[in-house]
Amino acid sequence: MKINYKVQGAVWILLFTLLVLIPLIILFLGPIANGKPALVTLSTSLGFIGLAIVALQFALTARIKPLSEPFGTDLVYYFHRQISIAGFLMIFAHPILLFLSSSAYIGYLNIFRMPWQYKAGVLGIILFIIVVLTAEYRNQLKIPYWFWKFWHGIFATLAISFALIHIFLNGNFVNSPIKQIVWIIYAILWIGILIYTRILYPLYLINNPYKVVEVKSERGACHTLVLQPMKKGLIFHPGQFAWITVCKTPFSDSEHPFSIASSAEHPELIEMTIKQLGKFTLSVKDIKVDQPVYVDGPYGSFTSDRYPNAKGFIFIAGGIGITPIMSVLRTMADRGDKRPLMLLYANRDWETATFREEIEELKKRLNLELIYVLEEAPLNLYVESGFVTNAILNKYFTGQWKALDPEVFLCGPNPMMNAVEPLIKGIGVPEVKIHSEKFAL
Going from the N-terminus, what domains does the chain have, and what CATH number goes with each? Predict the structure, then answer.
């Protein structure tokens, strides 16, 4: 299974690279205007590559499952952010290099008098600047996520539209049928992805709704939504997550990602345990039974099912990071899986340890070693005090566990994960054996 994911990932990387480079390749096919300065050619080359990179971001964020499956959704979104900035810098370098090549280009900055082929290019760059700055500094600007997401998509769409208008009206580098065909195909693919993500897929979700059958209170200021499919149920691997939309339609931008906490062996009901951390999560307790919910999933590579030949698993959870691990434990119990398991569960105190009663019951059905790590540890309990440290990991990661060469799954708040992951490597676990799930997509 792991080899298949590697091959699938390599194919996607090669395809992405090819689609980025095709505009540059066709730039030098056919007739090219003679006498162009080197800076002008470099400027155009960077503009073409940058535009291809930015246009492909619509595919990266379209949640195309075969695309995200080999890498994990959090990694795809991280790559989207980094490569988008690179693409934008290439696009921004396009006019800068033109200005450096000749002062005559500076005259095109008068947006009111310039011809439309240049006006479209300037408008596109202005929109790209807005897209990047609002994405990077949304929190500092205190822009609500739903508002930003809506306008982020619109501004990005308009920016690419103006860039394509600039290319076709300018004409210097679409001066042969093959070049025109290539850019037309890119435009069709881009429009097709927009239609799929904004119209076709939301229609599919509307026709496959869920309904709330129960809202359960849990320890640690959490509530569990129990959802039942009204038509086709969701088939998922333990540890995966889904986006849900409550009280609105899938055409809105009011969706929220949560890990599935229930067993993959019982897809007739799915459970999502949600901690009260923000505006939407505070309202979960007030969701009514029979309320329709739209579920977009499953996503993510944080699942034990990717490692069927593993001899054992170590799970390290912090706070609400227990939810995907609960799905794995419940699924393994339902499957009668007796492989050795270790769970290090970190919390602020004993009372906020979500699922602790059920985990004790699951120990009876699993080969599970359970260690609690509490910041405020009561004296009458045998638990580890403080935080997950190198000393705690060395205490439990003994020779027996090292011999098993286990897969290690880490999930929790980002500060905890950033602190613990180097410690896991420090006790001798190879990086390829460490799997993490970041909530901050």
Answer: 2-205 (1.20.120), 210-299 (2.40.30.10), 305-437 (3.40.50.80)
